Amino acid sequence: MPGWLLKLNDYFPIRYMIWLFALLGTAAGIGAWLDHGGSGWIWALICGSLAIAGIRDVLQTKRSILRNYPVIGHLRFLLEFIRPEMRQYFIESDNEAAPFSRQQRSLVYQRAKGDPDKRPFGTQKDVGEAGYEWINHSMSPTALAGHDFRVPIGAERAQPYSASVFNISAMSFGALSANAILALNAGAQRGGFAHDTGEGSISIHHRQHGGDLIWEIGSGYFGCRNDDGTFNAEKFAQNARDPQVKLIEIKLSQGAKPGHGGVLPGAKVTPEIAAARGVPVGQDCVSPAAHSAFSTPLELLDFIVRLRELSGDKPVGIKFCVGHPWEWFALAKAMQQTGILPDFIVVDGAEGGTGAAPLEFTDHVGAPLQEGLLLVHNTLVGLGLRERVKIGCAGKVVSAFDIARMMALGADWCNAARGFMFALGCIQAQTCHSGHCPTGVTTQDPLRQRALVVPDKAERVYRFHQNTLHALQELVQAAGLHHPGEISASHIVHRISKHEVRLLANLVPFVHPGAILEGDLPGAVFKVYWPMARADSFDPARPVRRFG
Q: CA-to-CA distance for 155 and 66, rounded, in angstroms?
């Protein structure tokens, strides 16, 4: 059944049943009267129902339209309710991205199903439009044996991890359904790539298939918390030492709503969710905006060391969406001062993500992925630390070219959340936070979850990953390279205008190794904010300069 019909079914019995049956009955009654039928009392009853609905509309005070247009005014609310689906299926062009275009979604669906993903008759993109990009190919392409591209993380640790260059980004059980988690992890296990738990911690559904896990530790310390919400070392060690857990990721912020906490209402805290998070059943589950285990850059680095010790020396890193530049610089200075480095940093772009957020946060808070990734990459290069800290990234990555472009800007690997949701069957209904997901991906409703058949969707998750990496292999070969890590900004071309193009290497700022150590602060951001940053505090050393 189409997603918009399932969505309509949630609302229809409550809002429209009375008046719609009355309307149909009236029409039928008029027909019967004209045909001299003998069931006039039935039609009278139906017409009476219609009259009651109309009187109710006239007397209610919440909706002006219904007071002026009783009964028929409900059509306006009905059409408004299904407008997103109608626009998506019948009005938007294949390349309109809102937030993902039909072409992007179709690519994921085809690769997840194993259908042909080739396109005939040339590109649908306007190659003369500003912003169009391509990767330059070589006259001497390479031939690679396979597409299982890997990046080592935590080489200095006792338990390093060899990660795929394409992994499942953070999505919690609770935000996703049990069946969705089961299918994602089964697909990850088969494909040998990593599955980020999200801050909702490790559930029984993450463990069932044994796929590699990145355990995300958020400000609520779910899975490793005391009753008052503070960090519990013993519970952390118990989960972290599980062989299935490969990486520990401290979440400082997320692209969907950086700097914003969250609350999972008590009504949604089921026994399964409560067991995974370590919270009481039926009580509000709070994720504070800030961590309580540390409050300064130096304390954060000490916390990283502590988590390594408790986990049996597994790689520990951080995830954040870039905000105030001086705060990131403060952490970088603390790293420089102490010699303590995270094993990896995941940069989340403000383009994300799966979590629902206030519109102002969705549209206007946090740095987009390109700017955040470049700042982090350039800082580590400028301090001579880039080779010791791996960088992952997330933010609207669904195709092999998306991966190639992010790696050209400095990433070692990419994560995807919504891409893998599409692989599960998500139709971008954008009802993720309502519990009414039509495909069973983002709901805790047992009946809705039944729509997501785990073995079938796990196979789709696996195929999407494999076919995307196969496409990445073909891009790498065409560029004459041997690994996507060799892709640089000199391989990507960006159109500035109808008559001007530039290599990304000449368009976006890059620093040379050790530049900051030499006192060569590159660009205004470094010149203004690097001197203000202090290793012992996230606050600047002096008031922010005001311009204008």
A: 66
Separation CA 93–CA 475 (nearest Å): 27
**Token digits of residue 329:** 């610089």
Matching residue, tokens 């260059």: 165
CA-based nearest residue to 265, from 248, 282, 287: 282
Distance CA 385, CA 74 (A): 62
Q: Is 444 helix (H, G, I), strand (E, B) or coil?
A: coil
Sign of CA dihedral 115, 101, 92, 421: positive
Q: What is the dihedral of CA 503, 509, 515, 519, to 10 degrees?
A: 150
Give the model confidence (pLDDT) of 143-197 as tens digits. Answer: 999 999 999 999 999 999 999 999 999 999 988 999 999 999 999 999 999 999 9
Q: What angle do CA 378, 381, 384 make, to 5 degrees?
A: 150
Neighbouring C-beta atoms of residue 292, cutoff 10 Å: 14
Distance of CA 170 to the CA centre of its chain: 7
Q: Which tokens belong to 108? A: 């994921």
Residue 89, classed as helix, strand or coil, is: helix
What phi, psi does 296 have (nearest 5°)? -130, 165
∠ CA 256-261-266, nearest 5°, is 110
